[in-house]
Amino acid sequence: MTDATLDRDSRILRFIEHVHPYDSLDRDTLKRIAEAFSDRTVPAGSEIYAAGTPLEGLYLIEHGTVEVTDANGAPVSLLRGRNSFGERGLIRDGIAQTTARAAEETRLLVLPAKTFRDLVRNDRAFARFFERGRAAARERQGDLSTQRVSDLMARHPITVAPDTPIRSAAETMRDTRVSCLAVTESDERLVGIVTLRDMATKAVASSLAGETPVREIMTSNPASLPPSALGSDLLHLMLERKVGHVTVVEGDRVVGILTQTDLTRFQALSSASMVQEVADAASAEEMARVTARLPALLAQLVGAGNRHEVVTRLITDIADAVTRRLLALAEAELGAPPVDYLWLACGSQGRQEQTGVSDQDNCLIISDAARGKDGAYFESLARFVCDGLATCGYYYCPGDMMASNPRWRQPLAVWRRYFRGWIDKPDPEAQMLASVMFDLRPIGGAAYLLEELKAETLAAARKNTIFVGHMIVNSLKHTPPLGLFRGFATVRSGEHKNQLDMKMNGVVPVVDLGRIYALQGGLTEVNTRARLEAAEANGTISRSGGHDLLDAYDLIAETRLKQQAEEIRAGRKPDNYMAPSDLSDLERSHLRDAFVVVRTMQSALGHNKGVLS
């Protein structure tokens, strides 16, 4: 080894021992890494690598400046000394995801790809820095409230036909030691469920003949959930509907049955008990005493390490239960509705993404069978529910997008005209309204009032390229808070000066992307993470782009929730703002990288390339 080589290795060692995460390595490993680095001086204006080309290793800037752009040429970062780049491509498939060019004469240190991957595989701290900790967060094991129903249910449920004699059905239940049977037609379509309780209270107590068809005692249209629902959804449904058996369905086919016995190991009873209290409440004031505990619940859920989509789902479940209970109380006071109606949530409640800061966004679809005199009933019902929600802490929508506003309380035919108008003439207001309305989710009433409307609207929107183009432009108005020099673009003035808006510049850009992908792919999912997963699964976005965006969204959303939880623990009202100084250097680096991913996906969408497979 020459003196020049020794001097070079010593120089590199002195440099990297003060650069994170190399400073976390033991001395022997650090020396070995210093020897593995090669160095290179790149003239100003020279390309270091191009998007889509193989990477030779991880790049570390010793001195100089490097400009990083995405595949469309949009600026991503301007990096200076001690910053690394190229890790995203190395971790994934070895192919560069961006283009890097020296903005001035720059000295680079290059760690060979194999050495980098060995370090990621063998050193936890090193891996945590470059993998951003997101994969580990996704792999956290939660309790039963976070498990999918598909993992909890009994497979191959026992079924009988509607004309099966009661005696035969009872013998089947006895022989197979089950407490319920799914009742299905010959095409496996679910039509009902029959339980031991039905046998006792409807058959035995009424002295029905043993040859009576089981259809006479079955429960038609039983409580059901999809396999993708969470264990918490199951318990909440059981408590609110006061049922002990829930069918698991895909479309109209039963694929499983869950009972209270299946929940004996259920751990997350706090949110479930709140749902039960809401279901039993006699007034909005009683429910308000329950919802007052929501901040503490959020802090508890975040502190327990639950994933962000689980936390927001549980918080939203309580809002759903409050809304349904208010609808029931309204009908008890006003009398039965004159015609069918459907109460829907939009906004964060519609997407099942409520946090510690939530207003109410809702609307009402009324059957076209309604007559003029029926309007007074639904006006009173809407006012009762919206006022009740406000009493429970879900403050009135600043934009008045609530069912108490006559504009958002209309017959189905009017809603059809609304959507047709927004699609045919996509002016700024139409784009805004369409964005909100694409997040509609039924809460209480006749669900059929939305099903056909949603299908025909999605089909019409996809076919109208001008509308889709306007929606894309509108979705790009919210951008991640990226500054040019490896920093953040914070709020410039006012109460939240020098803070990040983790809602409008954090999660909203991803929410907007998810909505566009759903529109492009004809996807029916409403939840943002579910939209991103479905868009990746059906090829609307590439697999690599989908993985990156999901990781970025997880990190941004969890950072926002952690900040809200800390504010709650400190006795403050949670909001959506966060000072970058509240984060460690490592956390700031990770969060900025997540914002870079979002900006890259926005750029690809705006250029109409690099997103569609």
Largest sheet: 4 strands, antiparallel
Mean pLDDT, to the nearest integer, reads 86
Radius of gyration: 28 Å
User: Low-confidence parts, pLDDT < 50 over ≥5 residues?
Assistant: 133-142, 264-269, 609-613
Explained architecture:
By secondary structure, the protein is an alpha+beta fold. Helix content is 48%, strand content 15%. The chain is built from 24 helices and 21 strands. The strands form six sheets. It has a four-stranded antiparallel beta sheet. A four-stranded antiparallel beta sheet has the order 2-7-4-5, covered by helices on one side. Strand 10 and strand 11 (190-195) form a beta hairpin. It is globular, with a radius of gyration of 28 Å. The relative contact order is 0.08. The model is unreliable at 133-142, 264-269 and 609-613 (pLDDT under 50).
